[in-house]
Predict the 3D structure of the following.
Amino acid sequence: MDGLDPGNVFLADCPARLAVEVIADKWAVVVLWGLNDGPRRHTELITLIGGISKKVLTQTLRRLQTNGLVTRENFGGVPPRVEYELTALGRTLMGPIRMLTLWAEENGEAVLDAQERT
């Protein structure tokens, strides 16, 4: 077998399914990729990503932090300076995200064409 036993992976409490749910969020992969080059502040991520609200970015970062993919470091000061960075676990996702990005670049037009046909 190929290690993808549907009897286990698709169960609600399967760790693999839970992990996929974390990164399947609309903004999770984009935020993780935005942190690929090193730590960034909230405002830097807003500028880099575009189209994401401050509230949604905050929620996404919290969810990624809770799941061990991102760290948050508060440097204090006035105004407060906070940076977000990938954890070692978060960095393990950069290869798969890169592959997904290549697929999207190669097949984006085909997806749009399919959408227009329906």
Remarks:
- Residues 94-117 form the longest helix (24 residues).
- Strands lie at 40-41, 70-74, 82-86.
- The chain has seven helices and three strands.
